[in-house]
Amino acid sequence: MIRNGLYHIAIEFLDGVSGGNQGVMMVRDGQLRGGDSFFYAYGSYTAADGKWKGECTNEEHSPTYGERPVWERKVVTIGFSGSYTDTTAETEGMALAGKQSIRFRSRLRLLIPD
Fold first, then answer.
1. Residues 6 or more apart from 103 whose CB is under 8 A from it?
2. I need a surface site. Which of 16, 22, 45, 73 has the fewest CB within 10 A?
3. pLDDT the model gives residue 69
């Protein structure tokens, strides 16, 4: 199972889409909770044998005033899959923001284990 704890997450958009993000993500017993200064995310995952997959929802909690135009004022649904070690995790996935689909890559680094 992926290690429970607080992770730093860095997201990179792919396919020439401008943008990305950084924040924190709590990974615990199949549940994801996290966010940054504008957005919060929540979801679930399954993990075994160094592989994991899941889904989450991303929503705006404070106006971005154009700083994050791809996701602002949208409920974004996200699906991902990837691999993990004892202190890191990587994913690739698809985010659906309104009518736009955005491929992304994310990297998680364990900050504080539970």
1. 13, 14, 15, 17, 92, 93, 94, 95
2. 16
3. 61
CATH number (domain holding residue 23): 2.40.128.380
Contact between 92 and 107 (Cβ < 8 Å): no
pLDDT of 67 strictly over 80: no
d(CA 69, CA 98) in angstroms, rounded, equals: 12
> Strands 100-113 and 5-13: what pairing?
antiparallel
pLDDT at 72: 67
Reported as a single tens digit per residue, the pLDDT across 71-88 is 667 789 999 999 999 999
- Return all residues near 70 (Cβ < 8 A) that are at least 6 apart: 13, 17, 18, 19, 97, 100, 102
- Residue 3: both structure tokens together: 């290690």
Residue 71 contacts residue 39 (beta carbons within 8 Å): yes
Closest CA to 13 of 76, 83, 63, 88: 76
- What domain range is 51 assigned to? 5-113
